[in-house]
Amino acid sequence: MAGFVGGVAHLLDAAGVGTYVPSGVPGKVWPIYLEHQPPQPGQCITVYGTGGAASPAGAPHWSEPTFTVRVRGSGDSRLSRVKCREVVAALHGLAYVELPDGIFVVDCQCQQSEPVHVGPDANGLHVHTAAFRASIEHPF
Hints:
The protein is of the alpha+beta class. The protein has a domain at 1-17 and 30-35 and 42-52 and 73-96 and 110-124. The chain contains 2 helices and 8 strands. It has helices at residues 3-14, 77-91; strands at 19-20, 31-34, 44-53, 62-72, 97-98, 104-110, 116-120, 126-137. The protein is globular and about 50 Å long. The chain starts with a helix and ends with a strand. 31% of the residues are buried.
């Protein structure tokens, strides 16, 4: 398992936002990748861990990771914006959910009101991102 970031990919898959295959073989519809977005396929979702707050002293089982979800669509920016809004709808406000490897999500919040348009990539496909913060409890 890929830890917390992989758990987020599982949540997006379960919500029907995209398809996550942990073996690295992409799904056919809106494949979800971890930490690296390949140049193909065009329409895809990638979850990136971005750090977060350190565990409080005396609570090594608790942390507040941050992560960004990057959505690449088509030459029409509306496609990636709509899909990124689906990501936000699936994750913002999520609470009291256990991930496949035993990490318990206490709370997950989007850190912005709308997806951010990052512009087109080298292939002319538009990209939107959304940044999140979560509070999680690790298994012992």
